[in-house]
Design brief:
Elements: H1 2-15, E1 24-27, H2 30-41, E2 62-64, E3 72-75, H3 83-88, E4 91-94, E5 97-100, H4 109-116, E6 121-127, E7 130-135, H5 141-148, H6 153-156, H7 169-180, E8 187-192, E9 195-201, H8 209-221, E10 228-235, E11 239-244, H9 248-259, E12 270-278, E13 286-294, E14 297-307, H10 315-322, H11 325-340, E15 343-344, H12 347-357, H13 363-374, E16 379-380, H14 381-397, H15 403-414
């Protein structure tokens, strides 16, 4: 029976939407979006009414809420000769009592991956009313350490550094377990595919990505009836979804603003839209931001609407905040108009100064060099801001950034819309900004 279950797990592992923890997928249409939502929503093994199990470890997608003090961490070595010994008789201590656990089956690809490629940490606690040991993904590490109050370099370090040795893995697990035992609150263990993606606090408010998306889309359609999904970039912990407003009236109004600026900006194609960024495992806040796309250039519009996964978070509260996106469009359009009227003597040098001060990625120098050639006699504040948007787009297109880092960079650039680019001086200084 165990062998049969293992074969089913191996097959399902190969059929998963994401091939690995680092896998990033592009969603091209609503069919891709539907497959993505189905993958993170369904209990993937419940398709014929049965639920196979291995060593009584059930496989499901969901959130369990054990007491933090009831959670133990056990480790399995990544070395092939030692791993079977660790997996054969896992155990942890709780209040001077040694708790023995069922063997960890290394034929299960999730367990094997955790031991060989991941943290080697297994969360053991009462789930589904029985004591179970579940493998973790690497992304769960920081949240586990936070629950134990140990989120520091000493416990994050897996290998020896120049000045510090790494804690021996079993000793580290013992200390983490001991500190988890000091907490009197519940924890929320976020499980996908039968693996621990995160261990959140008692205050964590989960919101399914599909529900969040549908709430945002419904709110947008109250003012823009033809709004629809456009594209997306998603990973295991994070998703970025783009919604097109499909509102010619709004787009033509913005086109007229661009054409009426001091340095008119003409564009053959123009689209208004909204970007939704979210994490189905609570790794980041939900953010909703506005943008225009002019001739393929992505223009981010100011600070995003944000909602963290804590007390007060709800779909109704999110809908209320998103109902103000129309005002955000208007405010950002006025800022862009002011940027268009702002004279900047050296656009390329201004970009270099901003990139240095705000630690923008390597693509900044390439964009700054292009600005030197494109604006030899100076440009506008809008030219500077569009160049910053280009930096974010190029870095994302490089394939070197995860979905969450792409979203973070996009938000970082959008926050720079209010910079006084004209206050950059020829002497290479950037005046203090209040």
């Amino acid at each position: 029976m165990a062998n049969m279950a293992n074969e089913m797990i191996k097959k399902l592992w190969c059929e998963r939407f994401f091939a690995s923890e680092d896998d990033v997928k592009k969603l091209k249409d609503t069919d891709d979006l539907a497959k993505y939502f189905a993958d993170i929503r369904e209990d993937v093994l419940v398709k014929d009414g049965s639920r196979p199990s291995v060593y009584d470890t059930e496989i499901w997608n969901g959130i369990e809420e054990p007491m933090t003090a009831d959670i133990g961490i056990v480790t399995v070595s990544k070395y092939p000769l030692l791993a079977p010994l660790d997996a054969q008789a896992p155990k942890f201590k709780r209040n001077d009592y040694e708790i023995s656990l069922p063997p960890i089956d290394l034929e299960d690809p999730r367990n094997r991956r955790c031991a060989e490629e991941g943290t080697g940490w297994f969360v053991s606690t009462v789930l589904k009313r029985k004591l179970q040991t579940v493998p973790t993904l690497t992304m769960a590490k920081n949240s586990i350490l936070r629950r134990a109050g140990l989120d520091c370099p000493t416990f994050n370090r897996d290998e020896n550094s120049r000045n510090f040795r790494a804690l021996e893995s079993k000793r580290r697990a013992e200390l983490i377990t001991e500190c988890l035992g000091l907490c009197s609150k519940r924890a929320k263990v976020v499980i996908r595919y039968g693996e621990v993606f995160a261990v959140r606090s008692e205050e964590f408010v989960p919101m399914a990505e599909e529900d969040v998306y549908n709430t945002v889309l419904k709110t947008i359609r109250a003012d823009h009836p033809d709004a629809a999904f456009r594209e997306g970039v998603v990973s295991l912990p994070y998703g970025i979804l783009s919604i097109a407003l499909n509102d010619p009236l709004q787009e033509e109004g913005f086109r007229a603003r661009l054409a009426g600026m001091k340095s008119p900006m003409k564009c053959d194609s123009l689209m208004a839209g909204v970007t939704l960024s979210m994490s189905n495992v609570g790794q980041a806040a939900i953010t909703v931001s506005c943008f225009y796309e002019a001739d393929g250039r992505h223009i981010r519009l100011g600070t995003a609407v944000r909602m963290t996964h804590d007390a007060g978070a709800s779909l109704d509260a999110l809908a209320d905040r998103c109902s103000k996106l129309g005002a955000q469009f208007k405010d950002a359009e006025e800022k862009i108009e002011r940027l268009g009227a702002m004279d900047v003597e050296h656009v390329g040098d201004a970009i270099r100064a901003v990139a240095k001060r705000y630690n923008l990625p390597a693509a900044a120098e390439e964009v700054a060099a292009e600005c030197d050639a494109q604006f030899p006699t100076g440009g506008s504040g809008l030219d500077c801001y569009l160049a910053l948007c280009d930096i974010a787009d190029r870095q994302a297109a490089s394939g070197k950034m995860s979905a969450d880092r792409q979203a973070d960079l996009g938000e970082k650039v959008a926050a720079l819309m209010d910079l006084p680019f004209d206050r950059y001086g020829q002497d290479g200084t950037w005046e203090a900004i209040d």
